[in-house]
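Protocol step 4 of 5: obtain the predicted structure for the target chain.
Materials: sequence only (see below). No template structures provided, no constraints applied. The aim of this step is simply to have a reference model before the mutagenesis design in step 5. Sequence pasted as it appears in the construct record:
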Amino acid sequence: MDIIITRTIGLLGVAILVAIIARRLHLPYTVGLVITGIGLAAARLQTGTMLTHDFIFDLILPPLLFEAALSMHWRPLRRDLLPILTLSTLGVVISTAFVATGMVHFLNWPLTPALVFSVLIAATDPIAVIAMFKDTGVKGRLRLLVESESLFNDGVAAVLFALVLAWGTEGASMTAAAATCKLVLMAGGGIGVGLLCGGAAVALAGRTSDYLVETMVTTVAAYGSFLVSEHFHFSGVLATVATGLVMGNLGVLTETELLSSGGRTFVVAFWDFAAFIANSLVFLLIGLAVASVSFEGLGAAALVCMIALVLAGRALTIYPLCLLFRHSTWAIPANEQHILWWGGLRGALALALALALPPNLDHRNEILIAAFGVVVFSTVVQGLTMPWLLRRLRFLPLAE
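Step 4 output (structure tokens):
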């Protein structure tokens, strides 16, 4: 335990320095963390292996998902719910099908591992996206579209990943009816658990005016909804997002008697801080872990092909689906579509799903290597160029 605490404090100390330097250089904080992690690993600094599926899923994801959902107003979300749900559901299916087809055709992968990789990499990680938008100061409808699509996209991708993995294990014994039932149960169960936990937490928090107790209630709700949902094999991601939306719109973002005024202010600040710590740890650990990955096991040409397929699959998701709304009140301007495409960063969720793959899965090692490669490209290359693209498209003032 002492070793874990020491390593964690050391990593947070490094993250503080990176944050200060990144702010002064006007660079995305998450990019700086990944690059620093790679540098520390290259220097053979002994930090220990902490990046595991359980670490990301049970410790990192709940506060990041909850904090993002907690700050999301229901009214503007409801106005754009149709395009958001279209991009995050049908979009994930299109991207998965395109990437899997490309891997089978160009790389001669078997269908099952190709589908497993394509669905886990289809998740556009809200951790990376939200951190990037906070760094650049982007607000308004664009931020809502990117963040909310990313949050729901994560939930859908996680559910489809479990379904594809079950199909790969059970094979022909899984019927279409059984797959549909499993899909509905996982998604519906997760949302149901989240709504119940969020409603119960708001009701409980309304019985006290102590801001510390109110904040503790939100903490139990965030982690509790995730863990309870995962225990019953529902979607923990959707459960935590639903809990955050309920608590945010019923208690935190509105002037109600359910939370005290001091409680609302402290809850927002607390979760902002918790998300900052989680972001700091996960991106630094990604950098540390990447340096130890043997990319020779996959090959440079195959990795470049996979990155190109992922980017093309994301483009095939955004541009054609946005055309469906071009003559409606939900029309998404072309410049915002470009941000939705290039801002579809991959991050910790893809790695968590890859790390959860069973050891006997065909091409497991190659899937893990490819996931790390795509995540690093996404975080570093797309993350570094996003501020430039935002300025180019007039979402940020041009640099003097």
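Step 4 remarks: The CA atoms of residues 200 and 350 lie 31 Å apart. The radius of gyration is 20 Å.
Proceed to step 5.
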